[in-house]
Amino acid sequence: MTASTAGASLLTADSPAATPLAVRTRGLTRRFGTQTAVDAVDLEVPRGAVYGFLGPNGCGKTTTIRMLLGLLAADAGEIELLGRPMPADLGSVLPRVGALIEGPAFHLYLSGWDNLRRLDSCDRTADPKTSRDRIGEALARVGLTAASSKRYRQYSLGMKQRLGLAAALLQPRDLLVLDEPTNGLDPQGTREVRHLVRELASDGTTVLVSSHLLAEIEQVATHVGIMSAGVLLRQGTLKEVLSEGTEIVRITTPDVELVTLCLQRLGLADVRLALDDEVTARLGDVPVEDVVREVVHADARVRGFVTARPDLEDLFVALTGEGFDVAR
Amino acid sequence: MSLADATWTGPLAVRPTFRGAFSRLYLSEMRLTLRRRRNVALLGVLAVVPVFIGIAVKISTPHNGDGPDFIGQVSNNGLFLVFTALTVALPLFLPLVIGVVSGDSIAGEAGGGTLRYLLTVPVTRGRLLAVKTLGVASYTAIGVLIVTGVGLVLGGILFGLHDVILLSGDTVSLGNGLLRTLLVAAYVTVALFGLAAGGVFVSTLTENAIAAMATTIGLAVFSALLDAVPQLRRIHGVLLTHNWLGFGELLRGQVDRAALLRWSALHLAYAAVFLSLAWARLTTKDVTS
User: Fold this and answer.
1) N or C, which terminus of chain B has less Cβ within 10 Å?
2) Are strands B171-172 and B164-165 parallel, antiparallel or unpaired?
3) Total domain count for chain B?
4) Out of B7, B12, B287, whose CB is closest to A82?
5) What domains can you pick out in chain A, each with its CATH number?
6) Closest residue in chain B to residue A120, using alpha carbons only
7) B119 shares contact with chain A (CB less than 8 Å)
8) Is A83 in Cβ contact with B117 (below 8 Å)?
9) C-alpha–C-alpha distance, residues A77 and A26, integer Å
10) Which chain A residues are Cβ-neighbours of B112 within 8 angstroms?
């Protein structure tokens, strides 16, 4: 089946008995003046999923996340987090949600440890007796133990990001909302975050991770949603969304004219000379073996024959357009 | 299917809240305020006020009529150093210090981005306003107590503490004088709550802490300005700053309790109005910082 933003798609995808949703919105809309930042978004994040929330800068991802967490009011639509309406049940829902929103923010003149203690003291559901242990554990989990007594002001960008993650992990969470968690991290840090996300997901935590690092997402996500200009364009399991892009056949040959003719005769779409000696086309409904037979019968010399699905990046660019322009 | 009956198999395990959570939050707020060097330095500025006056009086002995109220009595009785210092600190230093801390209370968190993390902990917006208001009120009380305490100790050292000759000419024992001093400090603190609450309200309007501080201090300055225009005498009685120096009433033989209560009520009314506005604003505010 194809992925779509229609309500029922995820529910009927793999398990006919509806998958419980950790995040679910209906017609979520937010306008700033005349501009519609988020336009009737139906987000569906199944419980236990690692949901990659993708979109170019300024597409409305962060606005959506802020509405999910009760920071921004929605102009229209409904939000449900962990089965509870938001922001109505904010007080009982958010203790089970860890969040990193648009980068970390802490008090500059406090140490990493003291900053976490500050947040922990603010949580009515945090046991003061275990505070010390939990802070230590969270810091260890992100590799900040050695720098815990350093002032936040002196932290590098990567250390700040790690402290933000540690804050999200102060308590066991059912849902983690991570907005650009690998921003500013070096390759090791990025790997560690990926590892951490996998580890948390295997413990049953649902992770909603927004990013524009598509390769990152492709490695870790089970589900993806692609947003552009305030609209959720695609949503579903990674496999579903990727399978929507049609398969491409790529033939390396010195006889490009001959091969081009063959492919056109078969009715393949988008027949193109990709390189001097390479022809590509979209396979569509034509079986691969027919293509091979046609080319061989035409006596074309073939050096390579590959079929490939577009990766996330191809799909992303196809959906959201290329170039450096900020969406709006 | 409506969202209300959406499918969520496992019931949401609502975590229990812990007893004393609010006092833990309040202590954290006070720790945050008092560990900030700027805020400690501001308290230092307040402590310097009685020190300067004390030294000035010690080396010059001014006569009644020169300088601020009560200064003529300081050399006779150290207790009056407290009243002189409060008189000097009230128009400028205390509003400055309160303006900085109250203006920073929410705008500072918003500007630094920590507001979004507080709200997603979550600290509900009502609790946040409550703890910020209590924090600013406590800081105000600490500021007044520092002026009072330093004035008392230094006055005692430099001039000695004796029975008090009141403004009405009556003499009361030192014990009675000290009690009156405590009441003076309490009155001044309450009188400053109006401004402190104004600062908290202004602080909910912006993400720019400096602007909020300046506006709050501006409130006090503007009120004092109106208070100085004789043509506006009719509204003087209800100005934010008009009755700040009314603590002198406590230094008479016959204390006009009704007047003191009326003035205190006015300051608390100011606080109530500002806090209502702050609540209306904060609970509907879009947090985009």
Assistant:
1) N
2) antiparallel
3) 1
4) B12
5) 21-244 (3.40.50.300), 248-308 (3.30.70.100)
6) B121
7) yes
8) no
9) 5
10) 105-108
| Position B208 in a domain | yes
* E-only strand ranges, chain A: 21-32, 35-41, 44-46, 50-54, 76-81, 84-86, 97-100, 175-179, 206-211, 223-228, 231-237, 248-252, 269-275, 278-282, 304-308
Closest Cα in chain B to A17: B7
Domain span at residue B145 reads 19-282
Contact A71 B119 (CB under 8 A): yes
Assigned token pair, B143 = 């500021």
Task: Tell if the CB–CB gap between A121 and B119 is shorter than 8 Å.
Answer: no
Sequence-separated (6 or more) residues with CB below 8 Å from residue A39: A29, A60, A229, A230, A231
B210 located within any domain: yes
Does any domain span residue B268?
yes
Residue A102, sorted as left (phi over 0), alpha (psi -120 to 50) or beta, turns out to be left
CA angle A196, A133, A117 (to 5 degrees): 90
Q: What is the DSSP letter of A20?
A: P
| Dihedral-angle region of residue B61 (phi above 0 means left; psi in -120 to 50 means alpha; beta otherwise) | left
Distance from CA of A69 to the nearest CA of B (A): 7
Residue B199 resides in a domain:
yes
> Chain B contacts of A24, Cβ < 8 Å?
3, 6
